[in-house]
Design brief:
49% helix, alpha/beta, 11 strands
Length: 424
């Protein structure tokens, strides 16, 4: 009997221990696995081997603060393949919890209900930390559907050597379209084989006149006074050199006075010998794009946006991660150091350490300062490519450039607007 009694006790104790282990295992907090979708390398179409490091660092920091969270992503997806990769995931019901919103697809994804509405998720004080344009690019009809993590403004690079050689005053930060056109005409008049500008398009001119592609009725607006003015200005520029297709290589060779360049291109420009090593003695500065009036913001800015999937089963922690990427100053500083864009936070851009870490070590001092970058971002507008989806914008760009080439802008704009709003 004693033997049986001992066996029974052993079985009972063992059963109790097993139940305790099962209960503890069942009740303990489960690990949340957050899947994110990002493209590999630079988001700005420039060479960059360290862009992914900033994401890896941010993930590591977030996981340390949230012990039960594991963040994973599929690496090696190139930017040119990312849009198709994400579309397939969304179509097959396999959307990442958090994903980078592809250029020109923001409006489409919002209209399809693919993104969580983040309106009200940031406090008023947190909103003030951002450059206004950064948050504006993430809004549709005043509602916030993503958060920005990087900004990439367009600047005007000025060949100061060329202008000094031609006895032309170097424009300041407050220059106008009139100043711009006057300098281009003067270079043509001097007839020394130099050119005014390369790469200046109708998009920059439209921003300079305070125009927009967003109509009040929700349709695309093309037949507008600001568009007519901008295309007229482009025609004036083209008439200065009607037979010459001025290219970036002409600027590299010191033959062109002005060349619009994104911040990412600027930060990549000098480190790569295949670009301009033999022209390294060329002296140039960066200033804001010219505007038609001091009251108009004329610096187009693109942003990298991160959104939360509407189908995510981990929405709360996913929103927290996106907020962490966008608002944490250490994370934002690391993005600015390792990528080629700018932080979206004012305090990070104005941090003195950014001059050496993000700007000065690669391209020298004096060409672009943090104060200049801060001024540009405070006086910038959302790039027009955010106004509609990629294919629609490509069609708009094609038709407008065709009308410029055929000199039919006055008669073509109404029909272009009708086609875009009817067929696209």
């Amino acid at each position: 009997m004693r033997t049986v009694s001992k066996q029974v006790k052993f079985v009972i104790v063992s059963a109790i221990l097993i139940c305790i282990v099962i209960t503890v295992y069942t009740l303990r907090p489960k690990q949340e696995v957050i899947k994110i979708g990002i493209s590999s390398g630079s988001r700005w179409d420039v060479p960059n081997s360290s862009a992914d490091n900033a994401f890896d660092d941010a993930i590591e920091q977030f996981e340390k603060k949230h012990k039960r969270v594991k963040i994973i992503y599929e690496s090696g997806i190139r930017k040119k393949d990312y849009e198709e990769w994400l579309s397939d995931k969304l179509l097959n019901g396999q959307s990442p919890d958090v994903y980078m919103v592809p250029d020109n697809d923001f409006y489409r994804l919002v209209n399809q209900g693919a993104l969580v509405d983040l309106t009200g998720y940031l406090s008023e004080d947190q909103k003030k930390d951002f450059y206004p344009v950064a948050l504006e690019t993430a809004k549709v009809k005043r509602n916030l559907y993503a958060l920005p993590i990087e900004a990439n403004p367009v600047m005007m690079c000025v060949n100061t050597d060329l202008l000094k050689k031609e006895n032309i005053n170097i424009p300041n930060n407050n220059w106008t379209l009139e100043d711009f056109l006057k300098i281009c005409k003067q270079l043509k008049k001097n007839n020394h084989g130099y050119y005014g500008v390369s790469g200046y398009t109708w998009k920059y001119a439209l921003a300079a006149y305070g125009g927009s592609l967003n109509g009040e009725d929700g349709n695309i607006l093309i037949d507008s006074p600001s568009m007519y003015k901008s295309l007229s200005f482009i025609s004036d520029i083209k008439q200065i050199e009607p037979d010459k297709n001025v290219l970036q290589k002409d600027f590299d060779e010191g033959k062109v006075a002005f060349f619009p360049m994104t911040l990412a291109q600027y930060r990549t420009y000098k480190p790569y010998p295949y670009k301009v090593m033999k022209y390294s003695k060329l002296k140039w500065i960066c200033i804001p794009l010219p505007t038609s009036s001091s009251k108009i913001k004329a610096t187009p800015v693109k942003t990298t946006l991160m959104g939360v999937s509407k189908t995510s089963r981990h929405k709360e922690i996913a929103k927290e991660f996106v907020k962490f990427l966008s608002t944490d100053t250490d994370v934002q500083q690391n993005f600015m150091n390792q990528s080629q864009g700018s932080s979206v936070l004012k305090k990070v851009v104005k941090n003195k350490g950014s001059q050496n870490k993000a700007l000065g070590d690669k391209i020298g001092t004096g060409i672009l300062t943090l104060n200049q970058l801060d001024n540009m971002l405070n006086n910038s507008v959302s790039d027009f490519t955010f106004s509609c989806d990629r294919r629609k914008f490509e069609r708009i760009d094609y038709l407008i450039n065709l009308s410029i080439e055929k000199e039919t802008t006055d008669s073509s704009l109404p029909s272009i607007q009708e086609e875009i709003n009817r067929k696209w």
